[in-house]
């Protein structure tokens, strides 16, 4: 098997295969180290917004997390430890930038940019959705005289201490970065297109006693994991379009805002104008309080252009800064579109997805035999840990591989894929994601192509097995 990507999905897939005694596996990684999202995101303040109990693989527990919400470095270290623990290091090929994969009748032929090639009976794309950076198309951006940084491409020495810095974007990375940078820059100007819903994080460190208890009595860690899971899973109720739970959460968030930001003008600008959950809900204890600092400025006027010495907004004001940080996120489809994937009848994945990223359960694509996606379209979550989705999809893949061993390569049927697409569209209409805001969850036509619009329990029931009726011989 060939696995493309060495983030959580790729490492987890290879580890489960190793547990099954399947060692004829290669993991192709384009970068110079494993880790995916947690290798690339090193900006100040970077951490997980899912509790540590649930941001680890169920079959590879870690009893000694440092805090409730682990830092990026700690998660990256955990991934490398998992690779060592399951004997995967010698199966990872670094610097292998996969650009082409073709179904050749009974196997996949995979090629890297440097000309190296691999063949495999099955191909797993574990490339994730938070990988290809999104950079804004702002007039004059290339003319700026100072450094321009992106949160997913952070240098070891950013040189921003004591500088006048602008941050463009107020999403998940900005919410973590703004407080961290504000503590060491001369002035910080945050350019906001739309306000974000934020709920308190309540992050706490883990004591040595707690770590020892989890190590000596693993059942206590499992119990804590299940309790955390149940607490987060209940939140799915709040994503119903008119659900009372959402209204209660909105009231608590606004109370947090009122307590954190005394200036009524700034507080008004930071107040979201859409339903909580329509865009990604963010967690932070210190983002909103940062705007009470005298050297931190919030700008809501749209950006007109970037000039050599700063950013000019449409009201004519030039905001002079010495550095610009782009906290503008990722292109969820970019990880797939940068590769040429060719299936039956010489049809490419890009052609198959011309009218939307159609899949069956976010795992298989009609016309592409023995091709499997991990954390594919419509499997991300707004309420719980995506690692739960990844592990369910891996169970599906393992089941499908057993079928292929018995009776040869298979491909998901167009009927199964269409049935799943209809269900996603129907189900999404009942959620807050269809309430009218513009978010990266939706494609250009306003269709949900990112999130699983139900509980993780339902995904587990639907996707953990690869049903024969949904597949045919290739």
Written overview of the protein:
The protein is of the alpha/beta class and 474 residues long. It folds into two domains: 2-132 and 331-473, FAD/NAD(P)-binding domain, CATH 3.50.50.60; 141-202 and 235-326, FAD/NAD(P)-binding domain (3-Layer(bba) Sandwich). It is built from 14 helices and 21 strands. The chain has helices spanning 8-19, 37-40, 72-85, 172-182, 208-216, 218-233, 244-260, 264-269, 287-290, 334-337, 349-352, 386-407, 414-428, 456-463; strands spanning 2-4, 26-29, 92-94, 98-103, 108-112, 117-120, 123-125, 148-150, 164-168, 187-191, 198-199, 282-283, 296-299, 303-307, 310-313, 318-320, 323-326, 340-342, 371-373, 410-412, 471-473. The strands form six sheets. The protein has a five-stranded parallel sheet, with helices on one face. Helix 4 links the parallel strand 9 (164-168) and strand 10. Helix 1 (8-19) crosses helix 12, helix 5 crosses helix 6 and helix 12 (386-407) runs parallel beside helix 14. The two termini are 17 Å apart. The mean pLDDT is 93.
């Amino acid at each position: 098997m060939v696995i493309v990507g060495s983030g959580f999905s790729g490492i987890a897939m290879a580890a489960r295969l190793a547990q099954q005694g399947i060692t004829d596996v290669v993991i192709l990684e384009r970068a110079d180290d494993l880790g995916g999202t947690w290798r690339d995101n090193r900006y100040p303040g970077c951490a997980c917004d899912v509790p540590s109990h649930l941001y680890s693989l169920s079959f590879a527990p870690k009893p000694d997390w440092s805090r409730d919400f682990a830092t990026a470095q700690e998660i990256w270290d955990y991934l490398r430890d998992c690779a060592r623990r399951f004997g995967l290091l010698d199966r990872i090929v670094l610097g292998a930038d996969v650009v082409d994969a073709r179904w050749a009748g009974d196997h996949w032929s995979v090629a890297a940019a440097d000309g190296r090639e691999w063949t495999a009976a099955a191909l797993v794309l574990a490339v994730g959705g938070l990988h290809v950076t999104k950079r804004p198309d702002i007039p004059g951006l290339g003319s700026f005289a100072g450094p321009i940084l992106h949160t997913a491409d952070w240098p070891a020495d950013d040189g921003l201490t004591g500088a006048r810095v602008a941050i463009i974007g107020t999403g998940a990375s900005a919410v973590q970065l703004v407080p961290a940078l504000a503590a060491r820059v001369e002035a910080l100007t945050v350019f906001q297109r739309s306000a974000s819903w934020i709920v308190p994080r309540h992050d706490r460190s883990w004591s040595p006693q707690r770590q020892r208890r989890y190590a000596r009595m693993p059942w206590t860690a499992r119990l804590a994991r299940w309790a955390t899971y149940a607490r987060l899973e209940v939140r799915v109720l709040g994503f119903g379009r008119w659900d009372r739970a959402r209204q209660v959460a909105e009231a608590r968030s606004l109370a947090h805002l009122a307590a954190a930001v005394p200036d009524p003008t700034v507080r008004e600008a930071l107040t979201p104008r859409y339903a909580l959950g329509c865009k990604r809900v963010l967690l932070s204890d210190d983002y909103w309080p940062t705007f009470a600092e005298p050297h931190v400025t919030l700008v809501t006027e749209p950006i007109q252009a970037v000039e050599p010495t700063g950013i000019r907004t449409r009201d004519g004001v030039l905001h002079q800064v010495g550095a610009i940080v782009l906290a503008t996120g990722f292109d969820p489809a970019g990880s797939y579109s940068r590769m040429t994937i060719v299936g039956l009848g010489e049809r490419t994945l890009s052609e198959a997805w011309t009218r939307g990223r159609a899949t069956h359960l976010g795992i298989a694509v009609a016309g592409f035999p023995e091709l499997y996606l991990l954390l594919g379209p419509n499997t991300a979550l707004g309420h719980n840990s995506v690692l739960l989705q990844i592990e369910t999809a891996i169970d599906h893949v393992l089941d499908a591989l057993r079928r292929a061993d018995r009776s040869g390569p298979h491909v998901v049927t167009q009927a199964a894929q269409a049935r799943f697409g209809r269900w996603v569209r129907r189900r999404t209409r009942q959620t807050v994601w269809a309430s009218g805001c513009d978010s990266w969850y939706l494609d250009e036509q306003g269709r949900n192509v990112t999130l699983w619009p139900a509980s993780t329990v339902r995904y587990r029931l639907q996707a953990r097995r690869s049903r024969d009726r949904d597949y045919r011989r290739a």
